[in-house]
């Protein structure tokens, strides 16, 4: 791939890490947190958006020094600790809200690509592959 800007490079690092399948932390599947019939509140007890994939957020401090996991498990964005982690990820990766939903929220992929996209059962590898396709589309459309 060519012509990476800083934001796309960050997204690529995350995608490659997820695609590799060797995560630094244990995680649970999103499908273990909620079902499509009964989604919980948007932000859960660990300051993690429960409509996103937990393994995405849990890996950020291991990949990027801008994120930190506090002793009680909450992940914070060092440049602005007041930001919720999903908004911080959006800012850090340079994504619009629409792109963020496309990349990380199950069921929002068909709006841009026409495919069924990611399910709540998606694995880290599948999310990584999805992010690689997103990056390639962005590079192809420059």
Description of the molecule:
It is a single chain. The chain has 142 residues and is mainly α. The chain has a domain at 27-123. It is built from 6 helices and 2 strands, in the order ααββαααα. The longest helix has 17 residues, at 124-140. Strand 1 and strand 2 (75-77) form a beta hairpin. Helix 1 packs antiparallel against helix 6.
Outline of the structure:
By secondary structure, the chain is mainly alpha-helical. The chain has helices at 6-20, 54-63, 85-93, 97-104, 110-113, 124-140, and strands spanning 67-69, 75-77. Strands 1-2 form a two-stranded antiparallel sheet.
SSE blueprint:
Elements: H1 6-20, H2 54-63, E1 67-69, E2 75-77, H3 85-93, H4 97-104, H5 110-113, H6 124-140
Antiparallel strand pairs: 1-2
Strand order of the largest sheet: 1-2
Q: How large a portion of the residues is in β-strands, by DSSP E?
A: under 5%
General form: globular
Give the N-to-C terminal Cα separation.
13 Å
Oligomer: single chain
Rounded to an integer in angstroms, the radius of gyration calculated over CA atoms is 14 Å
Record field, number of beta strands: 2
Q: Summarize the main sheet.
A: 2 strands, antiparallel
| Structural class based on helices, strands and sheet pairing | mainly alpha
| Count of helical stretches | 6
The SSE string, one letter per element, is HHEEHHHH
Can you tell me the residue ranges where pLDDT is under 50 for at least 5 consecutive residues?
29-50
Helix content: 40-55%
Overall mean confidence score, pLDDT: 76
